[in-house]
Q: What sequence folds into this?
């Protein structure tokens, strides 16, 4: 009886493993989407950084002090 129970549990774990593999593929696809959005935010971050440097160069020292 114990051996039968062990076999039944192994089959169940195999099914749950396949389900987790499918969910893993979905998370990979969503990860690629987030990576693309991350690159866009990095580009916008560089733009904002260059704008801040230009604004700091234009501001007088007296105002910053």
A:
């Amino acid at each position: 009886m114990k051996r039968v129970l062990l076999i039944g549990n192994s089959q169940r774990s195999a099914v749950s493993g396949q389900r987790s593999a499918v969910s893993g593929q979905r998370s990979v696809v969503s990860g690629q989407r987030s990576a693309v959005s991350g690159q866009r935010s990095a580009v916008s971050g560089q733009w904002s950084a260059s704008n801040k440097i230009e604004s700091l160069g234009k501001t007088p020292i007296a105002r910053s002090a």
The chain has a mean pLDDT of 63. Helices lie at 2-58, 61-64. The chain has two helices and no strands. The first helix runs from residue 2 to 58.
